[in-house]
Amino acid sequence: MSEMIYGDGAIRRPGLYGSSIENTYAGVLSFMRRTYSRELNGVDVVVSGVPLDLSTTFRSGARLGPQAIRAASVQLAELKPYPWGFDPFDDLAVIDYGDCWFDAHNPLSIKPTIVEHARTILASGAKMLTLGGDHFITYPLLIAHAEKYGKPLALLHFDAHCDTWPDDSPDSLNHGTMFYKAIKDGLIDPAKSVQVGIRTWNDNFMGVKVLDAPWVHDHGPEAVLAEITRVIGDHPVYVTFDIDCLDPSAAPGTGTPVPGGLSSAQALKIVRNLGGLNIVGMDVVEVAPSYDQSEITAIAAAHIACDMLCLLRNQKLARQG
Prior knowledge:
Elements (H helix, E strand, L loop, with lengths): L8 H4 L22 E2 L8 E6 L14 H8 L21 E6 L10 H13 L4 E6 L5 H12 L4 E5 L19 H7 L9 E3 L12 E3 L1 H20 L3 E7 L21 H8 L6 E8 L10 H25 L1
Parallel strand pairs: 1-3, 2-3, 2-4, 4-9, 5-6, 5-8, 6-7, 8-9
Helix pairs in contact: 2-8, 3-4, 4-5, 6-7, 7-8
């Protein structure tokens, strides 16, 4: 970028790289002020939203999650992210693609629409950072990612819920059964997958390594990272972060909160140290701002998403040598 843009970089920035100077309280609210674009040439990472909450089993409202995460990201676009100490957009070409449009009044069309949304982006060679929306969206995203990167993928899943409860209906929309389907479909390899922060029961965890919330509290983030590395290794991995992995004290704005979860400090330490993984895609889901308090849930989600971009920036530079 030849000149600094003052204000509304999301629609005025002429190139893919660099940051603009913005008033945090004003301007067009793309994720971290990235350029709004559907042009995929030269793009490293596409941020997009999937504003779905028709799959929830308790409180709806996650359809407003992408909007809330974008709004909470404004402070992250003001300074170099902590603790990274660099502007990821000096080296990583990131756009905000906007939201996946689907017909909410034609539910059976939703899954294939999300799959096609992801296929279009992945065909360009860009990676995806997706903002939810309820957690069902990860299932169609996994379909497209497994097609692109080869199945089965590893899954690194942060959540209060295992989401592997049985569901053999091919057309159901349920945010508690999609990883059951993904395993049955061969999209993910349970022997190469890890779930972190779980604090709900399932009679059959389908062979996935579960590091439940008490285990995380007892052993600490370093032990969690060691187990993640041991199980997943260098296998291509999709990372999905359900914000209800965090304790409701840190993330009240979600549809199915469960006490006893991770602190934001624990979760951020784990996410920030995933740089050794072969990450092929990622999402942050289940922010429901109508239940939030002082936007703390959306703020946590925005920080997690920002850290994911910083991981990808470092991986790009490492590949370039």
